[in-house]
Design brief:
- The complex is a heterodimer of chains A (995) and B (236).
- Chain A contains 30 helices and 21 strands.
- With 995 residues, chain A is an alpha+beta fold.
- In chain A, the strands form two sheets. In chain A, strands 1, 2, 3, 4, 5, 6, 7, 8, 9 and 10 form a ten-stranded mixed β-sheet that branches. A six-stranded mixed β-barrel of chain A has the order 12-13-19-16-18-17.
- In chain A, strand 12 and strand 13 form a beta hairpin.
- With 236 residues, chain B is α/β, with parallel strands linked by helices.
- Chain B has a single domain, classed as 3-Layer(aba) Sandwich (Rossmann fold), CATH 3.40.50.
- Chain B has a six-stranded mixed β-sheet with strand order 6-7-8-3-9-10, with helices on both faces. In chain B, strands 2-1-4-5 form a four-stranded antiparallel β-sheet, with helices on one face.
- In chain B, helix 3 packs parallel to helix 5.
- Classes of the chains: A alpha+beta (995), B alpha/beta (236).
- The interface between A and B is medium-sized, with 30 and 35 residues.
């Protein structure tokens, strides 16, 4: 809160100064309107930064608002929940009676801080229409959380609006459903429903299931979505009276699982009293088995900490930085152009402060206008992007619905994604203030610097070298950087801190270049930059960076070093590039004179060109990173389409509770389906691994029948020797090895999944105990999947044997299916038919194609959303180059006149502007691309080692080239107008300019 | 036949309802190989006349025939190329390109005619050597003195071997001594190469270097005087 106040106070001070120094205010104001195009471009450049800030804030607000709505939907008025001995997965606690918690109830029952308490009993059941529940078809029955509620007459509790709902109807207990669930199960008020309370009763068909009646159907948003402390389990809640709950589930009367507490106040202000409720609980001295879950405050805290907007703010930081460079650059150019005017004012007796004031007021006008428009633009853009978000999640939801055979029922959690645009007044105020403050900081320092001009040089229009005092200060700063770098270097070496050592090396190098007087600074700088780049790229070959390739901080440091050194290298060697580009232009038969002019101007104006190149580089750099990293992930999934299901095309997973329909009938039906080539059962077990020297951990095993076979072209594999060494192999050879008994009675297995296998790549012998207290197996890894491929199953693969037989007999298998195109039917159509067959049996089919499609859609959708935000940031670079070329037109009018006088045609003048833009833009884009690609390669490798196996670097060259061409094209188009104006300038008029 | 023939040359600047007649129907000839000074007070129209003569500005009425070619009847690009072939320019404020070295500045007119880089460099170095600037070839304009800059500017005007040199106040930004050095140089070039010089000035002393002096005031010619002494080497 202090920072906005300080900024506001600063603005008030500027406003007061403007009133006090009206002459300067008038001059500033007139300057703004004198050059409308310049003003427009500066405002446009500055507003992009503000738009990105306000957009990021709006994204954060919208996302938080969404999370709050989820909290409200899930918890309703519930603030705290008292539970007893809750299970580890936090789904079910032990039952208790109210007398056990009486001391706590006495304290909170009539307290003003609490407006409701509700004892609750709950049970996970399956609910469906009459005769439907046992079928477990998904579209007519669903697993739900049945909640038995005390105090039915005041349905619901606390400050929630009461809903009138009968406790009983037609002699049956009434249940309350949400509209969504009633629609999914095709139920209406008065319909009878069956409850499968105990899964084992499903097969006891002679035993009647308890029945209830739909008493009420409430709109989704008025129905508390509360279904237990664990909000991650996506159960739908079905409410019934406590008495009804007891009778339907045979649960003892006056016994509950949870006590819900509602604090006074709404969603946000209710949590004010959470501390008080917790104190009451602690002071009640209940037995230690009881615990009070502070559910709402925790959820709200986690929503607050989920700063989604920070991701956008982080991404846009590059564009905002580029925007600030643009403002500084442009403002400095404007001031330089008015050097004589400002010099005259100084000669007339105006102080430095007054001249600085003049520029500051002008900057304030620009910032004020830019920030106002920027905030509005950012909000509009983010509204559009959020629309894309909602559309994207709708697409994903529909893809999930159509791809996977879940029947007509909505998948839990796959409901529409209500991501609505929302922004708080504070966010608008903050972005507006920051939008003014950032450019004003730049303007302030630029004004200060310009106001220290040499009056004679300014009046005569002589380009002013950096003043001695300023030069000295800069020198001192760089010497300080050098010394500090040395300190870091020494401490880094002494204490063995690699990060400090790295920073020290880079900092010392830069400090050395700029801090000491060198006659040939360019050569020194070039050598140092090359050295820094080599050091950053090759440091992992030497101690202490050896083996640290995947350290994120080292990647960030290396990236920063490479990016900064590359930029300095290019900016200070533009003259060298000039020769290379001249050779290139000569190929296109462009006049050497045009080439010289096109390159000489940017090559000599090192600061201006450097800043422009930096703007392009930064924006492209971040876009490249955002493109390559997810693209590599996507390619990994695409590449793994065949390996996801062990070379099969689809699988029918096991349904929980062992409630499988007639699999034999289904098996024969699938086998007869045209296009189906094979159906293989597989059994999946959990095991507890305790290899010597390793911590005990859970692993999975996938068991196949002995006659299991796969064509060897299915996927690439590597053989693992007893030493742990790997070598290329084929699937067929590995299968042969799997069938061969080992001399030491160990079972040969394949390792699928993350790299390396448990215990490290060299450990091939493992010991694992199946299930709980099952047989212990000695396993030897004989092969594994190539590290750039993914598998849906992660663990050991083995063929059935005597030790696994017993477990196989008592478990249902997962069916793996291979199918292909058949007659006129494409493979996709065969898959669709198969989906229908499986769906009709109440099971669902998971196809590798759909997983790839879904993953691709998810990654692409997300990347598109981020990119649409980042492409907006490109406007900074484009505006920057347009401003520079407009400035160039003004500055070079006399030169253009002279060139036309000595015989340069319109075409040549146009070409010189066009090539100048191209030169700067192409250098910026290429630099950003190279640095971006190098960094993303490192990041992808880190991802591959940290939870994203299967990732190898894949560069979307096509997309990158398109992005670069668009960026270049739009930049060139933006400079066409000044180029055309320059080419049409009458020479006599141009020569008179400034005279 | 005159090398340059000016017929009824008029130039009117219009701004809204008001119009200002800068040149009021001028008629005169310029002979090949002569130095003609256009002399007059500030605002009399001498720079406008030079611009119209050289084709960098269009007259409102009248003709400028150079070597029999009606300059203003040419299309813009053809006129530009005509200038590139036949004319050289020397400006008061040099108009050198600050980001190019002396030799690169001198090469520019040669590139306007599109020959190769080697030829341009050879010609530029030759002319700079002739003007005593060979040791300043790689200097940038900001590293040169006023006189040196004007020499580079003259070198640029000569490098492509034009027939006419237009000089607009060539000594206007220089001190007296340097100005005289520059005028001596122009005179030498006129004598040795037979180039035609048209010099705009308001300085009587500079005008006395020329063969003829065209006096102007308020857009009209007051008279054209012969200045025989210049030819005889009796310089002021």
């Amino acid at each position: 809160m202090i920072i906005p106040l300080v900024i506001a106070a600063w603005f008030c001070f500027i406003g007061w100064s403007m009133l006090r120094y009206r002459l300067f205010t008038r001059i500033s104001f007139r300057n703004i309107f004198r050059r409308k195009i310049d003003t427009f471009l500066i405002v446009f450049g500055a507003l992009i930064g503000t738009a990105m800030i306000s957009g990021s804030f709006a994204m954060n607000d919208s996302f938080k608002s969404f999370l709050y709505s989820q909290v409200e939907q899930n918890l309703g008025p519930v603030d705290e929940v008292l539970v007893k001995e809750i299970s580890r997965d936090r789904t079910q606690g032990s039952p208790f009676s109210l007398s056990e918690i009486q001391p706590f109830l006495d304290r909170i029952q009539d307290a003003r801080q609490v407006d409701g308490i509700l004892p609750l009993a709950k049970k996970e059941i399956t609910l469906g229409g009459l005769g439907e529940t046992r079928k477990l078809l998904g579209n007519t029955s669903q697993t739900v959380m049945l909640l038995g509620m005390e105090g039915w007459e005041s349905f619901f509790f606390a400050d929630a609006p009461p809903a009138s709902c009968p406790e009983e109807r037609d002699g049956l207990h009434a249940v309350v459903l949400s509209q969504g669930m009633a629609d999914a199960l095709q139920l209406e008020v008065g319909d009878r429903v069956e409850l499968l309370v105990n899964p084992a009763d499903r097969l006891l068909i002679w035993k009647a299931l308890p029945q209830a009646v739909v008493g009420c159907i409430l709109p989704d948003d008025s129905m508390p979505g509360y279904s237990g402390v664990n909000q991650n389990r996506p159960y739908s809640a079905v409410w019934v009276s406590a008495r009804g709950f007891g009778e339907l589930t045979s649960f003892p009367a006056d016994t509950y699982h949870e006590l819900l507490v509602s604090n006074r106040g709404g969603l946000r202000d209710g949590v004010r009293y959470s501390g008080w409720v917790i104190d009451q609980f602690n002071e009640s001295n209940l037995p230690s088995a009881f615990q009070l879950e502070n559910v709402k405050q925790e959820r709200l805290l986690s929503a607050d900490s989920a700063n989604f907007g920070l991701l956008f703010l982080g991404l846009s930081a590059f564009s905002i930085l580029a925007g600030m460079l643009l403002i500084g650059n442009t403002f400095y150019m404007l001031a330089e152009e008015r050097q004589q005017e400002l010099g005259t004012l100084r000669a007339l007796g105006y102080s430095r402060r007054n001249v600085g004031r003049l520029l500051l007021f002008e900057g304030f006008f620009y910032s004020l206008i830019a920030s106002g428009f920027g905030v509005v633009a950012g909000l509009l853009i983010m509204r559009f992007i959020l629309g894309q978000f909602t559309g994207f999640f709708d697409d994903i939801t529909s893809l999930v619905q159509t791809s996977f055979a879940f029947g007509d029922t909505q998948m839990p959690g796959a409901q529409g994604f209500a991501f609505e645009f929302s922004v708080t007044p504070q966010s608008i105020l903050y972005s507006f203030l920051i939008g003014i403050a950032l450019p004003m900081v730049v303007v302030f320092f630029t004004s200060r610097r310009i106001s220290r001009m040499n009056i004679v040089s300014a009046i005569r229009g002589i380009p002013e070298p950096i003043a001695g005092k300023w030069k000295k200060r800069l020198g001192v700063f760089w010497v300080f950087v050098f010394v500090l770098g040395l300190v870091f270097l020494v401490i880094g070496l002494w204490k063995g801190i690699p990060a400090l050592l790295f920073t020290g090396v880079v900092q010392t190098s830069y400090g050395f270049c700029f801090g000491f007087p060198f006659k040939r600074r360019r050569i020194i700088l070039t050598l140092v930059c090359l050295g820094v780049i080599s050091f950053a790229m090759g440091c992992t070959l030497f101690s202490p960076y050896q083996g640290m390739e995947n350290s994120v901080w080292l990647i960030l440091l290396r990236t920063g070093a490479v990016l900064s050194s590359s930029m300095l290298l290019v900016i200070y060697n533009l003259k060298v590039l000039e020769h290379l580009v001249s050779l290139l232009f000569r190929l296109f038969k462009i006049s050497p004179g045009v080439t010289k002019i096109a390159i000489a101007f940017p090559a000599r104006n090192v600061n201006r060109t450097g800043l422009t190149i930096m703007m392009f580089t930064l924006v492209v750099f971040i876009i490249i990173n955002i493109s390559i990293i997810p693209f590599s992930q996507e390619e990994g999934i695409r590449r793994s389409e065949k390996t996801l299901f062990m070379g099969f095309d689809a699988q029918i997973p096991v349904i929980p509770f062992g409630l499988q329909p007639d699999r034999d009938a289904l098996l024969s039906e699938i086998k007869e389906q045209p296009g189906v080539r094979s159906v293989v059962p597989s059994w999946s077990f959990g095991g507890s691994e305790f290899s010597p020297g390793q911590e005990r951990q859970r692993e999975s095993l996938l068991v196949f029948p002995q006659d299991f076979s796969l064509p060897e072209e299915i996927y690439r594999a590597r053989a693992v020797a007893p030493t742990g060494q790997t070598s290329p192999s084929t699937q067929q050879k590995l299968l042969e090895q799997l069938r061969q008994p080992q001399s030491d009675d160990s079972i040969p297995v394949l390792w699928l999944g993350e790299e390396p296998p448990p215990g490290g790549p060299e450990v091939v012998d493992h010991t694992i105990q199946l299930g709980n207290g099952g047989p212990t197996l000695s396993l030897r890894i004989v092969g594994k999947l190539e590290s750039d491929l993914l598998s849906f199953f992660s663990g050991y693969v083995l063929l059935e044997n005597a030790q696994t037989a017993a477990l196989q007999a008592s478990n249902d298998p997962t069916l793996l299916i291979r199918y292909d195109a058949h007659d006129s039917q494409s493979k996709e159509e065969v898959g669709q038919d198969l989906t229908e067959t499986v769906r009709s049996s109440g099971l669902f089919l998971l196809k590798s194609q759909d997983i790839v499609k879904l993953s691709s859609a998810l990654i692409q959708g997300f990347v598109n959303i981020l990119n649409s935000f980042l492409y907006f940031g490109m406007l900074v670079g484009i505006t920057g180059i347009a401003i520079i070329m407009f400035r160039a037109l003004h500055e070079r009018k006399r030169i253009i006149g002279m060139l036309k006088a000595i015989g340069f045609t319109r075409r040549k003048i146009f070409q010189s502007f066009f090539l100048e833009t191209s030169f700067v833009v192409v250098v910026g884009i290429l630099l950003g691309m190279v640095a971006g690609v190098l960094t993303s390669i490192q990041f992808v490798n880190v991802l591959a080692m940290n939870g994203a196996p299967g990732s190898t670097v894949a560069i979307p060259w096509g997309n990158l080239v398109i992005m670069a061409v668009i960026f270049y094209g739009v930049s060139v188009v933006a400079t066409l107008f000044p180029a055309l104006l320059a080419s049409r300038l009458p020479p006599a008029e141009a020569l008179r300019y400034f005279e | 036949m005159a090398f340059i023939s000016v017929q009824n040359l008029k130039k009117v600047y219009s701004s809204g309802r008001s119009a200002f007649e800068a040149l009021k129907g001028l008629d005169f000839d310029i002979h090949k190989g002569e130095i003609l000074s256009i002399l007059g007070p500030s605002g009399c129209g001498k720079s406008t006349l030079l611009n119209c003569l050289s084709g960098i500005d269009d007259p409102t009425e009248g003709k400028v025939l150079i070597d029999g070619v009606d300059l203003h009847a040419l299309a813009d690009d053809k006129k530009t190329l005509f200038r590139a072939e036949k004319m050289g320019f020397v400006f008061q404020f040099y108009n050198l390109i600050p980001v190019l070295s002396a030799v690169e500045n001198v090469e520019m007119p040669v590139f306007a005619l599109s020959p190769g880089e080697k030829k341009a460099r050879t010609q530029a170095l030759d002319v700079l050597k002739r003007l005593g600037m060979e040791d300043r070839c790689s200097y940038f304009p900001s590293q040169l003195s006023g006189g040196e800059r004007q020499r580079v500017s003259i070198a640029r005007a000569l490098v492509h071997r034009p027939q006419i040199i237009w000089a607009d106040e060539p000594t206007g930004a220089l001190d007296t001594q340097t100005g005289e050095m520059i005028m001596d140089l122009l005179l030498d070039l006129n004598r040795s190469d037979g180039l035609t010089f048209v010099i705009v000035t308001h300085d009587e002393r500079i005008a006395r270097y020329s063969d003829r002096i065209l006096r102007m005031d308020s857009g009209t010619i007051l008279g054209i005087e012969q200045n025989a002494r210049a030819r005889q080497g009796e310089l002021p």
